[in-house]
């Protein structure tokens, strides 16, 4: 994957949400904007076009002219700050966008040297120009031509821009929710319910906690759940949260010293072995006590 920057469009009036600050709306305890920033965390420089607000990581800020001038004007403001030859372009209301999807877009573009961009198509086959990777110079060129032709970029639809670029289409088959956006409160409610579904809620929760704590170490949920079970059964129920806390603390110290994800696995292995030894001792003592009673 080549070096790249990212532009996140976080302006707009959000009229269908009653004019609230849509990028700050929370889904799964994280602002929509922060969720998108996590999906483009590998960018060398991330430019957010819109009003300044608190974000989960540092970004560069830009503002379209005039404010509220639409996506092409916003893209023009953002691309002025881009340094890399390739740029991800994303809207700030994509709760299910992942690094896997942005990585696919970048890989497709890198593999085809003739194309000027790669955009996602939704499950219905519609182009998603704000879930895309573009080559920076063709993007700048076409924006400048539009400004010359129309005199202003304000209010221009994105299709005028993408129509002039040679683009690859990337189907959303592997991640059909990647282009799901939150335009209405019903969309927000749907997204909030979706992340609480069985099979996804723990991954969502762990990701939210790591973002909140600024903690990037990979976590094997299965290993930690098995550890909590063994501590609860082999020692006492309160031992489960206390043990997982101590394992996390030990892994954090190891990571600070240069350790990686294996630090969690090693700390969990040691704590699990200890819990099982406690369980074995208790089982042995119970057996001896029963034998003595029988005698």
TrEMBL record:
Highest taxon listed in the record's lineage: Bacteria
Glycosyltransferase as UniProt keyword: no
Alphabetized PANTHER family for the sequence: MOLYBDENUM COFACTOR GUANYLYLTRANSFERASE
The protein's name in its UniProt record: Molybdenum cofactor guanylyltransferase
Organism field: Streptomyces niveus (Streptomyces spheroides)
Limits of the DUF6457 domain: 198-282
InterPro entries: DUF6457, MobA-like_NTP_Trfase, Molybde_CF_guanTrfase, Nucleotide-diphossugar_trans
CDD domains: MobA (cd02503)
């Amino acid at each position: 994957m080549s070096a790249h920057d990212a532009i996140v469009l976080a302006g707009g009036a959000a009229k269908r949400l009653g004019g609230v600050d849509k990028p700050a709306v929370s889904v799964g305890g994280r602002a929509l904007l922060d969720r998108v920033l996590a999906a483009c965390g590998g960018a060398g420089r991330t430019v957010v076009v819109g009003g300044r607000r608190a974000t989960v990581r540092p970004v560069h800020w830009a503002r379209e002219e005039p404010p509220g001038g639409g996506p092409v004007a916003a893209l023009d403001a953002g691309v002025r700050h881009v340094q890399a030859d390739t740029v991800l372009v994303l809207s700030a209301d994509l709760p299910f966008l992942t690094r896997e999807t942005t990585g696919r877009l970048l890989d497709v573009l890198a593999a085809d040297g003739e194309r000027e961009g790669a955009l996602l198509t939704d499950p219905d086959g519609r182009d998603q120009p704000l879930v895309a990777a573009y080559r920076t110079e063709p993007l700048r060129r076409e924006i400048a031509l539009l400004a010359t032709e129309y005199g202003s970029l304000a209010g221009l639809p994105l299709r005028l821009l993408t129509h002039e670029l040679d683009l690859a289409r990337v189907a959303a088959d592997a991640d059909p929710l990647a282009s799901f956006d939150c335009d209405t409160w019903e969309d927000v409610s749907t997204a909030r319910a979706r992340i609480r579904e069985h099979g996804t809620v723990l991954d969502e929760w762990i990701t939210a906690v790591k973002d909140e704590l600024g903690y990037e170490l990979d976590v094997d949920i299965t290993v930690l759940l098995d550890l909590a079970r063994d501590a609860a059964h082999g020692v006492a129920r309160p031992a489960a949260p206390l043990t997982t806390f101590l394992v996390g603390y030990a892994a954090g110290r190891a990571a600070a010293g240069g350790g990686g994800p294996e630090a969690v696995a090693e700390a969990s292995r040691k704590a699990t072995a200890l819990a099982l030894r406690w369980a074995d001792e208790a089982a042995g003592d119970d057996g001896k006590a029963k034998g003595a009673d029988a005698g």
